[in-house]
Amino acid sequence: MDSKQIKDIINSQEPIAIIKYFEWSIFSNDYAKARYTLLWFDKKHNHIQEIDMPFNLVPFVISKLGCFEEVLRLSEGIVWERMGFREMIKSSVSRAKIIQLINQQ
Questions:
Q1: Highest taxon of the source (predicted)?
Q2: Are 41 and 88 in contact (CB under 8 A)?
């Protein structure tokens, strides 16, 4: 997905979630890169799209986080959602599909 489409999704009024997580390099336990992923519900195919944010969009994403609610904060990362994303997913996607997304590598 290109940057314009990602910006359109973030600027839309659709329920979405943004995940910030840390990626540690193999050679150093002290250095971690922050990564961002967008979770978006594709109504056409009835499943959750997981979109990794390109580095050039990170400042844009950070500037939009004020419109989101922080729903989880752990040492491994943070999850923000907008417009009841979790509740919409719980009512629209089967539990098996949610578990499959969580267990993906």
A1: Bacteria
A2: yes
Helix (H), strand (E) at residue 33: strand 32-42
Q: CB under 8 Å to 9, separation ≥6 — which residues?
A: 16, 38, 40, 51
Q: Rounded to whole angstroms, how far apart are CA atoms 103 and 62? A: 26
Amino acid 56 reads N
Rounded to two decimals, what is the model's pTM?
0.82
What is the distance between the alpha carbons of residues 9 and 13, in angstroms, rounded to a whole number? 8
Better pLDDT: 88 or 104: 88
Q: Which residue has the tokens 């009024």?
A: 13
Rounded CA separation 2/99 (Å) = 27
Query: What is the 3 state secondary structure string of 61-102?
Result: HHHHHHHCEEEEEECCEEEEEECCHHHHHHHHCCHHHHHHHH
Angstrom distance (rounded) from CA 40 to CA 89:
10
